[in-house]
Amino acid sequence: MSWLSNKIGIARILLGLVAGIPLWFTIEMLTPSLTKAYTARVDLGINTLVGENYNTILRRAEAVARAAVQRNFDRDILVTDVSVIISVQHQGAIAPILELDVSRPRWRNNPDPQRWAKYFKAAKALLYFQGNLSSVDNSKFVENEPQTIEDGKQKTGIIDN
Asked: What is the pLDDT of residues 129-144, one digit of tens each?
């Protein structure tokens, strides 16, 4: 009798395993799997052209950043944010000139790189450009060094849009 109950116990276990596999498969097919969205980070470098001034290279950097953001959103549907840093090489010096960090919904509503770009103030000096920046909105520039401490909090110089 114990031999028969042992066989029945093994049969129950096997039946439970065999019945569980289709149940697991059905559940996996009916419920969507989780997808993970992520941020695409792009670092691009451009060289200045002969006779190009700082404002011209700034506009060209914005165009390159705009194309990079759009390309990343178009290429991968799981990308929720794109962060682009454009560095410029001029007379042997290399410095980051702008950072464009934007989410997909914000970009869809307003695909203007000037709206989302943060400019680095020190880039002009680091790249040996002379003159003023009268046509560039100075309120969007980012300090490269921490500013003064006010109310016990250190300002980073990053502008929130």
From this structure: 865 444 445 555 555 4
Chain CA centroid to CA 137, Å: 24
DSSP class per residue in the chain: -HHHHHHHHHHHHHHHHHHHHHHHHHHHHHSPPP---EEEEEEEEEEPPTT--HHHHHHHHHHHHHHHHHHHHHH-TTEEEEEEEEEEEETTEEEEEEEEEEEHHHHHH---HHHHEEEETTHHHHTT--S--TTS-GGGEE-SS---EETTEE---PPP-
pTM of whole model > 0.90?
Answer: no
